[in-house]
Amino acid sequence: MAPYTLLDKRQLAQLAEDYGLGKLQTTNGVVEGSVNTHHRVDTSKGRYLVRVDEVKSEIEVKRELDLLLYLRKHGFPCPQLAVDRKGRQYREVGGKCVSLYKFVDGNHKEAPKLTLNQIENAGRVLADLHVIGKGYKKGIENRFSFERVAEVYLDVRERLPSYFKKITRTLDEEVGYLEHYLESKLPKGIIHGDPFLDNLLFRGEKVVAVLDFEAASRGKYIFDLATAVNALCYDGERYDLKRFESLIAGYESLRTLSLAEWDAFPNELRFSALRFTITRLNDFFLNPVDTSQRINKDFREFYDRLSILRREREGGMEGLLMAMATGYDYRKYQKVRAIEKKGKS
Question: For 50-63, how does the pLDDT look when each residue is reduced to its tens digit (9 = 90+)?
Fold first, then answer.
């Protein structure tokens, strides 16, 4: 979302004309975010967001747009893609794909100001994505699988300065541990991959839009939920058990976690924290980007979470483990399994 590729007023006016949006009135670069460039444009026919894909190839952009169209068709609150007068979903500007979306009127929330109802609704909308996505049969490669993240780490590790020795030792241990203890045979489908607060828009207690499907792929549902826990249930120093319970209650109101997913939950939390520690080290600490453009997302935010999840320091992990151990409702699971078997017979 950061303004890495600036489109001038002439280019934006031409886009407004090509998309039949009327006369361009005002434009603003959106500074929040980190990966892609967004411009907010006001036209005589409304407000829109112009997105410049900074990292994806054309085929990857096509796959993301196809997924968004599918989700919108099935009522999911994701960005609404605009098409130009010729029916095109995107165009190329300077070798990068540019697309337009209808602006959604909503508010971003800071973690300390989230209510339990908002967290519960965030859990529900994540489950809604997973349920709706079951019908999407096209494959989207997971660019952030454990194997890919481990490859990125090998490259990052070689470039880390010597004073990162303690961090490197921890990350070495974590990669080695997860390589043996991550479970791959878990329910999979379409996941968002990045369910952070800056990708959620609220209006009152309701989530009115889930943004930024840049990392969406086919992956483990429990990883998506674990990432949401790391994003929404951590208060800066520790995990908040009430937030966790609200998120899970919202999620399980639409999709019940299996016993295998409950068992895998602690390790998926650790992998999520490891994934964002490593990719932030790579993208925002080591990547040579103009510091005036960089939106710096500190890797230490997730390294701190990882330390708690590894039980190296206090921070609410004991409460999470107890909730996971007791949160699985065996009778509910058996009922779901009986219904699934009946449907197959």
Answer: 999 988 899 999 99
Q: Tell whether 123 and 68 lie within a shared domain.
A: no
Which residues have CB under 8 Å from 197's CB, separation 6+?
A: 108, 109, 110, 111, 114, 231, 232
Specify the pairing of strand 46-52 against strand 200-203: unpaired
DSSP SS3 for 207 = strand
Two structure tokens written together for 285 = 């600490």
Distance of alpha carbon 153 from alpha carbon 207, whole angstroms:
34
pTM attached to this predicted model: 0.89
Question: In the beta sheet, which residues pair with residue 30?
Answer: 38
User: What's the total number of domains in the chain?
Assistant: 2
Q: Which of 36, 37, 35 is nearest to 8 (CA)?
A: 37
- Pairing mode of beta strands 200-203, 96-102: unpaired
Residues 209 and 126 in one domain: yes
Half-sphere exposure of 112 (CA within 13 A, CB side): 2
- Asked whether residue 337 falls in the same domain as residue 241, the answer is yes
* pLDDT at position 175: 97
Q: For residue 244, give the 3-state DSSP assignment.
A: helix
Q: Is the pLDDT of residue 33 over 60?
A: no
Predicted pLDDT of residue 292:
46
Quote the strand ranges of 23-169, DSSP E: 24-30, 37-43, 46-52, 91-93, 96-102
| pLDDT tens-digit series, residues 303-327 | 999 999 999 999 999 999 999 988 7
210, 313: one domain: yes
Write out the residue range of the structural domain in which residue 278 sits: 111-344
CATH number (domain holding residue 330): 3.90.1200.10
Q: Same domain, yes or no, for 315 and 197?
A: yes
